[in-house]
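Quick log. Single chain, no ligands specified.
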Amino acid sequence: MNSKIAILRGINVGGKRKILMADLKNLCGELGITNVQTYIQSGNIIFRATDPSVDLENKLETAISEKFGFEVPVIVRTSEELQELVDQNPFYSLTTDINKLHLTFLKEKPAQENIQQTESFDYKPDRFKIQNKDVFIYCEGKYHQSKLTNNFFEKKLKTGATTRNWKTVLKLLELSKG
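-> predicted structure:
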């Protein structure tokens, strides 16, 4: 059995697309997902998956749409993948302030031409590094003031995206190991 983390995009932000974590947990139970735990209201689910062949992203997206009446993109990573991302953050050397670090999870690996085009943008002092299906972000100021948003990466890389601050990434990793 593998620990997995489902990261939902755009729920419970500004009172829109509201889903209570208890309701999300119950929905997961209805889908046969076990050992479900949620973390903060932004839509993070830690669980165990026994069948690796099940497309959990689509399964959760469909169930959320049917139950709550709106579409919510879902990105799933394994605990092992999350550990690799934590170990490989290229911006750890720039700061000891984890509030400056963020991780954008991509729905799929973008096309090389889209990566090259996106990497041509320079928004210093903010920086980013695209690696497979993820984008490491360093923000000198506040993330919400940066141009390196979900919408920026979705538009340029032509794939779905959702971002978590580094504190949340570390907590999700800790919970998935527990």
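The chain has a mean pLDDT of 91.
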